[in-house]
Amino acid sequence: MQNPIDQNIMERRTIKKFKKDPVDVEEIIELLNIAKWAPNHKVNQPWRFQLYTGAGKEKFVQAFIDSMPKIDGAISPKVLNKAQYFRDIPLHLVVIMPEDPRQRRWDEDYGAISSLLQNFQLAAWARGIGMIWRSNDWIYDPVFREAIGVAPGEKIVATMMIGYPDHIPEKRERIDIREKLDIISE
Contact, 65 vs 77, CB < 8 A? Predict the structure, then answer.
């Protein structure tokens, strides 16, 4: 019999279609305060966040538009459609970490933030809030990074697009872990 944590892990889905209903910023802060209990070597808490909501989303959307290539100086319809899609999503959370020059520290920090983000997604899912973790090419673009205030020496780990699900995708089966597991007993 599955316990509620097992069930939540297996039922969580990546959401791409959101209702336009607002999500309470205080609830997101509460969820991040829960998620921060992720495993974190040295408890250095190597994360910072930018939450875009309401009219503030336009800064995020404009940074995206400005980072996209122009066709004969014009913004492509595809980019404009994607920008409108972003405007319609209730919240955007940009997750940023310092890029420590020591590889081990960088790896530990990235692992901690990834764990935090999984905690965040699971806690939100339990409350009916869905999201998609994006790491598209444009998060590396200097125009986008500068427009939202990401400094040299920082990495955008994710842009989390957050809202109430308008559509929940079907479960996609996973390979039995036995096919990916080597047991070494001697």
Answer: no
**Which amino acid is residue 42, in one-letter code?**
K
* Angle at the Cα of 23 from the Cα atoms of 116 and 115, rounded to 5 degrees: 5
148 contact partners, CB below 8 Å, separation of at least 6: 50, 59, 60, 63, 94
Tens-digit pLDDT profile for the chain (186 aa)?
Answer: 678 888 988 899 999 999 999 999 999 999 999 999 999 988 999 999 999 999 999 999 999 999 999 988 899 999 999 999 999 999 999 999 999 999 999 999 999 999 999 999 999 999 999 999 999 999 999 999 999 999 999 999 999 999 999 999 999 999 999 999 999 999
Mention every residue, 6+ apart, whose C-beta is less than 8 A from residue 50.
93, 94, 96, 148, 149
* In contact, 12 and 132? CB cutoff 8 Å: no
Determine contact, residues 25/139, Cβ cutoff 8 Å.
no
